[in-house]
What does this fold into?
Amino acid sequence: MHMADALLSPAVGGIMWAVSAGTIALGSAQLRREQDDRQASLMGVLGAFLFAAQMINFSIPGTGSSGHLGGGLLLAVLLGPSASFLTIASVLVVQALFFADGGLLALGCNIFNLGVIPSFLVYPFLYRVLSKGGISKGDRHLAEPVPGGAPGKWRETAAVMISALVAMQLGSLAVVLETGLSGISSLPLERFLLLMQPIHLAIGAVEGAVTVAILSFVRKARPELLRRAPAGNAWRSRFAVLLAFLVIALVTGGFLSQLASKNPDGLEWSLSKAGGKVAAPGAGEGVHGLLAQLQEKSAWFPDYAVKRAAPRPLPRGAGALPDAASAVPGVVGTILTLALVCVAGALLKKGKERVETPDA
Amino acid sequence: MASISAALLDLKRLDQLASGTTFLHRLDARAKVLATLVFIVCVVSFDRYQISPLIPFLIFPAFLIAVGELPTRYLLGKVALVAPFAIAVGICNPYFDRQLLLQLGALRVTGGWLSFASIVLRTGLTVGAVFTLTALTGFPAICRALQRLGMPRPFALQLMFLYRYLFVLAEEGGRAAKARELRCFGRKGSGLKSYASLLGHLLLRTWQRAERMHMSMLARGFSGTFPEQVKARLRFADVAFLSIWVFLCIALRLSNVTHSVGALFTGLLP
It folds into this structure.
């Protein structure tokens, strides 16, 4: 469920970049305060582990399909929020650069959806609350139980399953909202939700089952690893601040992108503010005004074209439908420019080769 | 499991492209990162029905691939493989958006098809730009550039560690997966139970490796940062590269070159 550049508007992408960059700065500052220099190597290698683990699949009985570990919740349980968040974010950076999963602008969205949500929202506010209390058999012999203690088996299973489900639901909800707010896709918001949420219910169940299985394996083999994660109480207050910051950022973001969408778009708007001349509106612009009233009545986000289920009568007049005279230069120009770019590329390549042959 | 080793090989190939010695490879990573970001923002800032103004932007990846001597076919193949999510979401557009926007003789193009084509083109441009950036710069250089542009040091350190152990762990995971595959019978034996203990063992080994690494790093006097070979400073070429591309991207964003070329050409015809 990586968000993609092609579905994003600059306003939404930029805001999510700012939110994720702010969270990375906060997480880094937190790690620096902890000053546990074992953490650095551990996080690095666990990031690589996550990367490798996501490549390995297992078959889901009875469905014919296969699933794999996402790992956000697993890392949060093993490392605590800040360290797990930075680890997931680093894996996402590698995936964006080497596999173009998502892309550079969408990186902010992906870090938020897959990193901030499990590490900073679900883990401290849901998992720790659910798994608190109830000391497992293995811990009873300890003279000084770890604060919070290791949860009992069933409690832990339930906590992990619920947390994984909630994390996935929130993540896919964020994808839907980011896509909807960007307004590049014309998929109606509620249909998109109906499509995404059930799929991610299944993915969340798979993720929960895998996380439970791996955690119980680790608890059997090296239970001391699971006692490292920092206790939640001191964190809670800081996360309240963080959450407030996120909400403010998102609200501001929502306001800003509303503002941007009322104008031609973000860049043109800022450029026209700066005194530059704005380019001629494209094919869609004339239609925008005409459809606005229709949309106002039915859309979830009135200024965005997210809901357009019914085929509309053909809008006439006001330059709504470009006539052939203006459409033909567009098409001819497209073909010509494409050809020009190809020729330029080929010539550049030829030129390079010719320069190099005398040396060879 | 062929897919893991194939993916790893693919990763290594992209990584090795960064060891080239062309003019573009030698540019400061900051200039390339910033130029790519400006390019992507310009591309995605177009209205969703726009196609023709996006075409001239192809010159950016085309220039980088040609001058950077990158393998065109390999990169095109990579671009074609990715972004299934964007395409899957985009393909719904023709279904939901049936309003007629363009008419060419008998051919009627609805807004949905226009915006779908626009999404595909955007995908190609943004993904292509990212791949050329990685292939021309290399991951460690991009990390250092981001650090100098303000990324916090612990995160930069984390990215460097991850990059260093990515290949090691992916190979180890690939070997483990292959061993499981050989012991499986069809789908039998590749279920959750064996998967959990496979990943669990991998996790424990990874953890032990981290402890060993930490001790050897301490033994070698690791100070918390990776040393840099060259203290890079922005040169004239870097600034020129960045400003030319930023100027070009903004110019292409503000004027529809494609339309002008088309108008000129159709104007010339009787």
